[in-house]
From TrEMBL:
EC top class named in words: transferase
Protein name, per record: Kinase
Name of the coding gene: IP6K3
Entry's EC annotation: 2.7.-.-
Family under the similarity heading: Belongs to the inositol phosphokinase (IPK) family.
Keyword line: Kinase, Transferase
Molecular function, one GO term: kinase activity
Pfam families reported for this sequence: IPK
Protein's UniProt keywords contain ATP-binding: no
């Protein structure tokens, strides 16, 4: 993460208070919500350079890059810490923050009951205590949802706890390592799930290798061990988190990276089926558009010579709310077209997390590779085959 020199932060009333992004299902860096259509994350130079020089062919499979912002810690009169963004000139478009936010309400509720992040009491630790569980057990639970204030619908009150976990850990680290007037740089990126009412998200860590060229020997050994002990080694892909909307219960079924690491090949197959299941039926109409987009992505990856997408993830996204039924025929009028369920289903495939991506021309090259990324291709091919098996009823 890039940290700038201390400076006068100016009138923060014109800044944007960043919100925890409640649809973050994986990763360890905190992803924050800037506005309805924009998220931001700590700037890592290699990832910044990747977005600045993104090949045209890959743009349809990555979040739209919107520039950068400076961010600083701010403590309110109650002692609660938050991150405030001050947009830079390179930020594109008009960015407005909503006046009402479920994310802020949830985060403030957790802080109010614990005395704030900076007070030495952890919100999730308090939440764990209220559930008579240890903090570790709460965070590592495979299935979890937390309901806030009365009066909201069950669907509105359900969220994935992973984003709050990352946000709380990030705030704790920042307030312990840096003064409050220290400026940090964040990337502004498209919120790829903003168009979905109940976004179902699968975060897949791609490739057979997860460490970057600049990794220490200790980090290299740790990541190689994780790959060897998971489906990364045999399939080139493993689950790093997911949320699936359960239509009848009106909440998300959530799985975290620890669940994904323990899966066998058979378990991985079953987890993909679970990702496509709404609690009542398997959403088979999603398979055709997912397979079509994955095949298109495979062609793009095969065309990117020298790129190695170490430790990057692939998001599979669809809406947990099923598409509306086709319009009824009006008396005496022509019959409306009858699109297939697959045509109605909207899905999205996006590559994310490029902090360890290397390619010819990147400024910190540990090595220059020839040809496309074999580990990523291996993972994509296996993912395609497993989804094809599900479609074929195997």
């Amino acid at each position: 993460m890039v940290v700038q020199d201390s400076a006068d932060t100016g009138d923060v009333r014109g800044g944007v208070q960043l919100e925890p992004f409640l649809h973050q299902v994986g990763g360890h860096l905190s992803v924050l919500q800037y506005d309805e259509h924009t998220v931001c994350k700590p700037l890592v130079p290699l990832e910044h350079m990747f977005y600045e020089s993104l090949p045209q062919a890959m743009k349809q499979f990555t979040p739209r890059y919107k520039g950068t912002v400076t961010v600083h810690l701010q403590r309110d009169s109650r002692g609660h810490l938050s991150l405030v963004a001050s947009p830079l000139q390179e930020a594109q478009g008009s960015l407005k923050v909503s006046s009402e936010s479920a994310a802020v309400a949830i985060w403030e509720t957790l802080q109010k009951t614990t005395g704030g992040v900076g007070s030495g009491t952890r919100p999730l630790a308090h939440l764990a205590h209220s559930l008579s569980e240890s903090p570790a057990k709460t965070l590592l639970r495979s299935e979890f949802h937390f309901n806030t204030a009365a009066g909201e619908s069950q669907a509105e009150r359900s969220f994935n706890p992973w984003g709050l976990h990352c946000h709380q850990a990030h705030l704790t680290r920042l307030c312990s390592e840096y003064p409050e007037n220290k400026l940090h740089r964040f990337l502004l990126l498209e919120n790829v799930v903003s168009q979905y009412k109940h976004p179902c998200i699968l975060d897949l860590k791609m490739g057979t290798r997860q460490h970057g060229d600049d990794a220490s020997e200790e980090k290299k050994a740790r990541h190689m061990r994780k790959c060897a002990q998971s489906t990364s080694a045999c399939l080139g892909v493993r689950i790093c988190g997911m949320q699936v909307y359960q239509a009848a219960k009106k909440h998300f079924l959530c799985k975290d990276k620890y669940y994904g690491r323990k899966l066998t090949v058979a378990g991985f197959h079953q987890a993909l089926r679970q990702f496509l299941h709404d609690g009542a039926r398997l959403r088979t109409e999603l398979l055709e558009p997912i397979l079509r987009q994955l095949r298109a992505l495979l062609l793009v990856i095969r065309s990117q010579s020298s790129y190695r997408f170490y430790s990057s993830s692939l998001l599979l996204i669809y809406d947990g709310q099923e598409p509306a039924e086709p319009a009824e025929r009006t008396p005496g009028g022509p019959a409306p077209p009858e699109p297939s369920q697959a045509a109605l289903a909207k899905v999205d495939i996006r590559m994310i997390d490029f902090a360890h991506t290397t390619y010819k021309g990147s400024w910190r090259e540990g090595a220059i590779y020839d040809g496309p990324d074999p580990g990523y291709i291996f993972g994509l091919e296996n993912l395609l085959q497993i989804l094809q098996d599900i479609q074929d009823g195997e």
